[in-house]
Specification:
138 residues; mainly alpha; 2 strands
């Protein structure tokens, strides 16, 4: 009986011992994401991610960027239309067009880049997450 208890405890601790720390973001993904950002996002959100007051929101440490990845993916796929948008207490008026023409990998890369640039530190966006959200929108 003691042997079974000890084996059970060891099995339980073994899972704790082998927990991996969070994976660093792949450098290639960040580099690809920066290229996508420079091509499609920079004009409105600026090189430093600060946006334009009352027009285009900042990407620096906002709840939109650091929060729910699904919401962020949906913004890329559908855009933001229709009047004012409030983000963390600031109001913005410039509509954002949908970027649904971007490939899933490009969206994952650019969002991972944004979530880990401009002072942001958040988990990467995966291609699987983008595919899932794209399917929900269709």
């Amino acid at each position: 009986m003691w042997k079974l208890i000890l084996e059970g405890l060891f099995a339980g601790f073994a899972g704790l011992i082998f927990i991996r720390p969070s994976q660093p973001l792949p450098k290639a993904s960040i580099e690809r994401g920066k290229k996508v950002y420079n091509t499609y996002c920079l004009a409105c959100h600026q090189a430093d991610g600060s946006g334009m007051q009352r027009m285009n929101p900042t990407l620096v440490k906002t709840s939109y960027v650091l929060g729910d990845k699904k919401k962020l993916i949906t913004i890329i796929l559908k855009g933001l239309q229709g009047g004012e948008v409030e983000i963390d207490g600031d109001t913005f008026h410039n509509p954002m067009p949908a970027h649904d023409f971007l490939k899933d990998q490009e969206i994952a890369d650019v969002l991972s880049y944004v979530r880990n640039s401009f002072g942001n530190k958040a988990s990467a966006v995966t291609v699987a997450e983008v595919k899932s959200e794209r399917m929900k929108i269709k």
